[in-house]
Amino acid sequence: MRITVETMQGVGDWNEDAIVSEERIGLFGVLDGATSLAPYRGPGGETGGYLAARHAAEACRDEALAGASLHEMLTFANARLRGAMADAGIAPDVPEALWSACAAFVRVGPAWIEYAQLGDCMIAVYYADGTIRILTHDQLAHVDDRTKAVWLAGVAAGLRTKAELWDHTRGQIVAGRALANRRGGYGVLNGDPACADFVESGRISTSNVEGLLLFTDGLYMPKPPGESDKDSAAEIAALVREMGLRPYMEWVAELEDTDPDCTRFPRVKKSDDKTAVWISLAP
């Protein structure tokens, strides 16, 4: 089987996404760091989300993981992240202070594709008959829906700037961080050992698979009030096939630019980091 890989990543002062692309061993992944709500900057000005994604990506490349499952790999990365935060003096019992990152990984072999996922990084599978299969579940959609509802209530109350809306919604965002690796919440790499119980993993056959798309939630298109992101992955996968990966990402960025204060499309930032890995498989 021949593998061709295309990676796309937006640029920014502190892009909090990361990519793992190790073609030699068929390992590919995307990670999406979340900015710490408690103020933190590393020695070089790094944000907590930036550090989370990069510490985890580095851990996933560790040669000590040879033969480990992807579930074990993410558990290992989570423990590494816990150690890095301890070294930086981050309190492990303050959820909004933790460095955190969502993740989606695949390991492609001749007969099987292994996968593992946390949070709202997603994986789509493209088949030779035109079928698109969404392999993962957005574990954060229900939490994001609550946040968007509070943001929208702020718009309805007359708040118009992003700063005003952020202040209005911050309490709900903090409440959402407290649900990380908790029942009723979602899984995320944040150093909490409970993360191991939230990693979703498995494997599928490579038979008739033509391609795979791994992406962070920065590829989610802005939605009008009342519309959830729960079904966004299927829409994204279809549009990427129709438009191409780069044109799709540019289209989303242009749409976001039409609503800089996030009042037309409720969301907590104008534009999120956008990262994707496209993997083509050929016999």
Descriptors for this entry?
283 residues, alpha+beta, 6 helices, 5-stranded antiparallel beta sheet, 31% helix, globular, 24% strand
Q: Which structural class best describes the helix and strand composition?
A: alpha+beta
Would you report the number of β strands? 10
**Beta-strand percentage range:** 15-25%
Helix content: 25-40%
Mean pLDDT score: 94
- Rg estimate, integer Å: 18 Å
Shape, per Cα inertia axes? globular
Secondary-structure element string? EEEHHEEEEHHEEHHE
The termini sit apart by 4 Å
* Adjacency order of strands in the biggest sheet: 1-10-9-6-7
Low-confidence stretches: none
Biggest beta-sheet profile: 5 strands, antiparallel
Total number of helices? 6
Summarize the structure.
This protein is an alpha+beta fold and 283 residues long.
Give the secondary structure arrangement, pairings included:
Elements: E1 2-9, E2 17-22, E3 27-34, H1 48-60, H2 70-87, E4 100-108, E5 112-118, E6 122-127, E7 132-134, H3 141-156, H4 162-177, E8 200-205, E9 209-215, H5 232-243, H6 245-257, E10 275-282
Antiparallel strand pairs: 1-10, 2-3, 3-4, 4-5, 5-8, 6-7, 6-9, 9-10
Helix pairs in contact: 1-2, 3-4, 5-6
